[in-house]
Amino acid sequence: MKLVIRLLLNALAVVILSYALPGVGVDSMTTAIIVAVVLSILNFLVKPILIILTLPITIVTLGLFLLIINAIIILIAAHFISGFQVSSIWWALIFSLLLSFLQSILHSMLKEDKSK
């Protein structure tokens, strides 16, 4: 159940950012849900491979290259999903940063008190 709620919160974050950023577009809420699912699958399958392949440059840049890897993952998702558009890698980078920030805010609301 928590997985479905997390995916819906991620889709909500995608919709909010598509309204806020002019370089990112999402056609509908259904497309946003598909974007959330595809991004989680790409982060699970493709991102570790990219991290291993680019490990030397990631070490040299003290981990800042991971931001570029996140932007590439978003561009890959935009390539595969027809209703999701990202105009450039810079918009993908901004979208990636804001998406992770917004997801952390939304997911912190989901956490329950452990004292109960």
Task: Describe the protein's topology.
Elements: H1 2-20, E1 24-26, H2 29-53, H3 55-60, H4 65-80, E2 84-86, H5 89-110
Antiparallel strand pairs: 1-2
Tell me the overall shape. globular
Poorly predicted ranges: none
**SSE string:** HEHHHEH
> Helix/strand-derived class?
mainly alpha
Number of domains: 1
Separation of the first and last Cα atoms: 20 Å
Mean pLDDT: 92
Main-sheet strand order equals: 1-2
SS elements, strand count: 2
Helix content: over 70%
What Rg is obtained from the alpha carbons, in whole angstroms?
15 Å
User: Mind describing the biggest β-sheet?
Assistant: 2 strands, antiparallel
Summarize, please.
The protein is mainly α and 116 residues long. It has 5 helices and 2 strands, in the order H-E-H-H-H-E-H.
Structure description:
This is Putative membrane protein. The chain crosses the membrane at residues 32-55, 62-82, 88-110. The protein is mainly alpha-helical. The chain has one domain. The chain is 76% helix and 5% strand. The protein has helices at 2-20, 29-53, 55-60, 65-80, 89-110; strands spanning 24-26, 84-86. It has a two-stranded antiparallel ribbon with strand order 1-2. Helix 1 (2-20) crosses helix 2 (29-53) and helix 2 packs across helix 4. The protein is globular and about 40 Å long. The model has no long low-confidence stretch (mean pLDDT 92).
